[in-house]
Amino acid sequence: EFFSGPERLTAGAIFFYLVTQEVSGIPLLRSLAEIFLLLIALYELSRGFPEWRKLVINPVYASALLFVASALFGCVISPLPEISFDELKTPLLKNMLLAPLLLSIAILGLLRHDWGAERIARLLLISLAVSGLGQLIWVLTIYAQHFIAVGKLPADPFFHRYKVSAALVVFPFALLSLQSFSRLWNFLMKGVALGLLLVILTSNARGAWLGLFASIGYIYLVNRKSVNAEFKFDRKTLLFTPVLLGLVLFLLNGTVMLDTFLAKVAQGFDTSQRMGHGTWGATFDLIMQKPWLGYGYGDATHTAAYNALAPNRPEWFFRESVGAHNSILTHWVAAGIFGLFAILALYAGF
After folding, report:
1. Cβ atoms < 10 Å from Cβ of 287
2. Total-model pTM
3. Residue 341 and residue 146: Cα distance in Å, rounded?
C-alpha cells in the first residue's frame, strides 16, 4: 500500500529514514537514509510549495526554533564555545530543526498527491514500529552475545539502559501494528516480549519502565476515544506480558536469580542519589550561582562549573559531575533564564 504509485520514492524515503534513525549498529544505513530524505525534500520543493509557511509557523516548530536559539545563546556565552557548538550540531541543529523540516516537506508532498491523512499516519506508525522492533532485536542480540561470552547476564546495572529506554517507547506500537500481518508476526512479537522482560528486569532503567507505560497509556487513550478502530487491544496480547512475568517470577522463586532481579528493579526506582544533595540538588545549587545567564551549553561546561564548585560544597553526594540527569535543569544551567523559558515553551508547543 505504501510503496505503490508515483509517490513511492517519497514514501520510501520517509520509511527508510524513520526506521534507521533509532536502531544502533547501522551508521552507514542511517547516513544513506538522511541523504535520501534530503534529495526527496529538494525534489518536492522543486515542484512548488505554496504552503511552505505551515512548515515553520506552528506551535511545535516555532517552539523548537526558540529552544535552538537558546542553545545557540548558550554556545555564545560558553567558555568552551567550540566544544559547545559541536555538542549542539547533531541533536538540535540536525535532529530538531533540519530533520523535521525535511520530513514535513515529504509528508506534505504526499498530501498534495492524493494521500489521505490516515494513510500517512499508518505509514508513520508502521515505520516507528519497525524501528522499535529493530532496536529491541539489537539490544537482545547484545544481551545474548554477552551471555554466550561470559555465561551470565550483564553485571553492569547501566548496561545499554538508554538504548533499551528508547526502544521501549515504540515497542507497544510494534506489538499492535505488526501482529495483524500474520500469525508468524504475532508469534515473533510475543517472543520479543519474552526477551523484553529480561531486558527490563536487568537494565536498571527507569526510562524503560516509563517509556513502556507511557506508550501503552497513549495507545489506550487513542483506543478509548475510537480514533483508530483498527488498532484495538487484543486482550490476549494485553494479558500476555503480566502473566508471563508472573510465571517467570514464580519459577525463579527461592533462587539467587530472583533476588538479583528484584534488587535491580529496586535500583531502577531508587532516586536517593538525585534528590537532596544528589544530581538534581547540586545542579540547582549551581544554577543559583548564575541563574540569569547560565554557564554555557553542553556537558563540558556543566562539568567544568560543577567540578570547580564541588570543593566548596562538601554536602554534595558526587564529588565530580555526572550530569544534571534532568532536562529542565540541564538547559537552565546552560542558558540561564532564557534556557528555562525555552525548554518550558518547547514542552508547551508539543
Report:
1. 22
2. 0.73
3. 44
pLDDT tens profile 262-298: 666 666 666 777 777 888 888 888 899 988 999 999 8
Grid coordinates of 42: 529538494
Cell numbers found for residue 234: 487484543
Cβ(279)–Cβ(325) under 8 Å?
Answer: yes
Q: What is the pLDDT of residue 76?
A: 93
Angle at 143 between CA 141 and CA 146, to 5 degrees: 110
Residues 136-169, buried b or exposed e (16+ Cβ, 10 A)?
Answer: bebbbebbeebeeeeeebbeeeebbbebbbbbbb
- Which residue in the block uniquely carries the three cell numbers 562538601? 314
Query: Which conformational region is residue 323 in: left (phi greater than 0), alpha (psi within -120 to 50 degrees), or beta?
Result: left
67, 336 Cβ separation under 8 angstroms? no
DSSP for residue 96: I
Q: Please tell me the distance from the alpha carbon of residue 208 to that of residue 211, in angstroms, as a whole number.
A: 5
Q: Is 6 helix (H, G, I), strand (E, B) or coil?
A: coil
Residue segments in the chain with a per-residue pLDDT below the cut of 70: 1-2, 49-51, 152-208, 211, 216, 218-220, 222-270
* 3 state SS of 157: coil
